[in-house]
Design a protein that fits this description.
Shape: elongated
Helix content: 55-70%
Largest sheet: none
Structural class: mainly alpha
Subcellular location: Golgi apparatus membrane
Strand content: under 5%
GO biological process, one term: protein localization to Golgi apparatus
Organism: Gossypium tomentosum
Oligomer: single chain
Radius of gyration: 19 Å
Order of helices and strands: HHHHH
GO cellular component, one term: trans-Golgi network
Protein name: Protein SYS1 homolog
């Protein structure tokens, strides 16, 4: 962890964004496999990127919603180790969901479902706030100082 004056490193920022995005989708895939995979005959990218799969009218839709929210909780944990600074958590979580929005637009068009917007807005809030909380707890820990006795 670094504190104080930091040199702006765009390659580090891009690497952190790519790592966070990959870990988010990996976690989302695991949760979708467990929660949705047992309910459908075949898994596909529809559950990742199509706004129509995020619905409250079916049990499968509720499982998709739970997968997205559980992935945002896991994303907050990832930010604790990848980002390490509380003041950057909102930026990185918003970037993750903006990239997700662009991928969803390319996959299935503009998300017209209010449920999709509520779920993803809640995901941003959960990831940012929980990530900030976890990072602040780490930043406020006491620094252990060991004292060595000299044998002089």
């Amino acid at each position: 962890m670094f504190y104080g004056a930091v040199v702006w490193d765009p390659w580090l920022i891009v690497a952190q964004i790519v790592c966070l995005q990959c870990l988010y989708y990996l976690t989302l895939g695991v949760f979708l496999s467990f929660l949705v995979g047992i309910r459908v005959s075949r898994m596909s990218l529809v559950y990742f990127f199509d706004f129509a799969s995020v619905t409250t009218s079916t049990v499968t839709g509720w499982c998709v919603i739970a997968s997205f929210l559980l992935s945002s909780i896991a994303g907050a944990g990832y930010m604790l180790y990848l980002i390490e600074r509380a003041k950057k958590c909102l930026d990185f979580s918003a970037t993750l969901y903006i990239i997700h929005l662009f991928i969803c637009i390319m996959y299935g068009g503009w998300p017209s479902s209010i449920t999709w917007w509520v779920v993803n807005g809640t995901g941003v809030a959960v990831m940012a706030l929980l990530g900030e909380y976890l990072c602040i707890r780490r930043e406020l820990r006491e620094i252990p100082i060991t004292r060595y006795r000299s044998n002089v």
